[in-house]
Design goal:
It is a single chain. By secondary structure, the protein is α/β, with parallel strands linked by helices. The protein folds into 3 domains: 388 residues, no CATH class; 35 residues; 35 residues, no CATH class. It is built from 11 helices and 12 strands. The strands form 2 sheets. It has a 9-stranded mixed sheet. Strands 10-12-11 form a 3-stranded antiparallel sheet, with no helix packed on it. Helix 1 runs parallel beside helix 2 and helix 6 packs across helix 7.
């Protein structure tokens, strides 16, 4: 059994969910014959001890990935590290508890008329642990290839802990996946079917594929498609997952200018860089590979890596998307909403998806948080997404103008900042030149002084005749004899008072 606090929490949550499910079951709203559960994971750096399993996404930064309404949002954060299971029996017990709560939550959402659900998994791992547990332990790591002694600098205990944290990520994903598999089996024999797809970003692109492979080895194959965004999974991880899901059901999305995507020539091995993604496309021609970037086209104006995972954050700005065919890239396509590119890269980039929640008729075209996220597309008669709120096609001209105006404003700000940067660079150049000249003058002066001191000859000292005597009245004989070291010497023929 798991730790007492975790068990108590599950008991309370499940009782609440059972009550909610019973209440909703009394008033079913014609559940859809096809229900899609989107299993999502954005990777590291999002865990918070205040997150609660089975809650909605209102307290999660950027909200959900898909844009489902609150009753269809199922938060799945990892427990605190000190409450994680210690053996296989405890992991199985955790999965069984997740299944119980997930089953009730799914039933409640479907009874409310939702046909799209999202399970947002939150990994309990920091960025530093991610780098130590994956990059430093990877045989083809750039840090190992360039700095082979780096491991000896880091405390081995911390590296080992980071490795165990990543292993626990995969085990937790396996526990969640097993629960999802059981919920899917519960739909068999009913009037509805449950399909499951995966959208994994950053370290989630390593964690979820590993979990999918582990589950398949236990005869649990249930994922219909996988989208990988700026994935930190390597070729071996990704291709092993493709063998389970099928290459034609896998799409790879990479963000241009993503700082951690090391090029293959520098030792990079994750599919978040083009060389490795192209290799996978070559090995599996049926996989689809896309590049994305901000629609203003100025990827160098932002901090490298600032656009990481942007397709999985619906409040990101408009983007451009192009597909790699194996021989080259297609023409870039403009998407007003980044989530739309992830959900339907073949659809119209100018059309935004209709809200999945039939009762929610308002939408923020540029994205929002939690329940305000843009929902996944609903097909229209022409095969594309329906328009926002049933608006006419011409309404999107105004929306497009607004997006272009926003991009122009951003471009103007960037131009002004670049002007300031040029002025500062010019000023720094002048200061550098003055410093260089001062250094040169100082060096030349010191060299001259050194040479002068080296070759200077001592002044000769005057010789005092042996018969001369020191003058006792220099005021009376100011010019007599010689003045040596402040003493005047002269012949004894000059009488001085004794």
């Amino acid at each position: 059994m798991g730790p007492p606090r975790l068990a108590t929490y599950f008991f309370v949550v499940v009782i609440v969910l059972m009550y909610s499910s019973t209440t909703l079951a009394q008033h079913p709203q014609n559940p859809s014959p096809t229900v899609t559960l989107h299993w999502t994971d954005r990777g590291v750096g999002q865990w918070d001890p205040n997150l609660r399993m089975f809650d909605n996404f209102s307290v999660v930064p950027h909200g959900g990935v898909i844009g489902v309404p609150p009753q269809a949002q199922i938060l799945m954060p990892m427990p605190p590290l000190d409450q994680l299971p210690k053996n296989e029996q405890e992991w199985q017990a955790l999965s069984d508890k997740i299944y119980l709560g997930l089953r009730i939550k799914v039933q409640s959402a479907v009874a409310s008329g939702n046909s799209n659900l999202e399970v947002l998994q939150i990994e309990n791992v920091t960025l530093a642990q991610h780098l130590e547990g994956t990059v430093l332990k990877s045989e083809s790591s750039i840090l190992e290839s360039i700095l082979p002694d780096l491991k000896s600098i880091l405390p081995s205990a911390e590296v080992q802990q980071a490795v165990e944290v990543q292993q626990n990520n995969v085990k937790f994903a396996g526990a969640v996946g097993q629960a999802i598999y059981k919920v899917q089996k519960d739909f068999e024999g009913t009037d509805s079917t449950l399909t499951v797809d995966v959208k994994a970003g950053s370290n989630g692109g390593r964690t979820l594929p590993d979990a999918i492979v582990d589950l398949a080895q236990q005869d649990m194959t249930f994922v219909s498609g996988v989208d990988l965004v700026d994935s930190r999974g390597g070729i071996a991880h990704t291709e092993a997952m493709m063998e389970v899901v099928g290459p034609a059901n896998v799409r790879i999305f990479n963000t241009l200018g993503d700082a951690p995507a090391f090029p293959e020539i520098a030792g990079g091995s994750t599919i978040a860089n083009r060389d490795v993604a192209h290799q996978i496309k070559q090995d599996f021609p049926d996989v689809r590979e896309f590049d994305t970037q901000p629609a203003n086209g100025d990827i160098l104006s932002s901090i490298p890596g600032a656009n990481h995972n942007m397709l999985m954050e619906p409040d990101s700005p408009p983007i451009l998307l192009k597909e790699f065919t194996g021989f080259g890239y297609t023409e870039p396509k403009f998407f007003l909403n980044p989530t739309q590119a992830l959900l339907n890269p073949d659809g119209s980039g100018l059309k935004a998806p209709d809200s999945i929640d039939a009762s929610a008729r308002s939408m923020n075209v540029f994205g929002g948080n939690g329940a305000d996220q843009v929902a996944s597309p609903q097909p229209s008669q022409d095969g594309n997404s329906v328009l926002v709120n049933g608006a006419a096609e011409t309404d999107f001209t105004k929306l497009l103008d607004q997006a272009q105006s926003r991009n122009q404003s951003i471009d103007s700000e960037i131009s002004a900042l670049r002007g300031q940067l040029r002025d500062q660079n010019s000023e720094m150049t002048n200061l550098d030149n003055e410093f260089i000249r001062a250094q040169a003058d100082r060096t030349q002066s010191e060299a001259f002084d050194k040479a002068t001191a080296q070759f200077a000859l001592p002044l000769p000292q005057p010789t005092i005749p042996s018969s001369w005597v020191p003058c006792t009245c220099p005021a009376d004989h100011p010019n007599a004899g010689l003045l040596v070291n402040g003493v005047r010497w002269h012949t004894p023929l000059l009488n001085c008072p004794r």
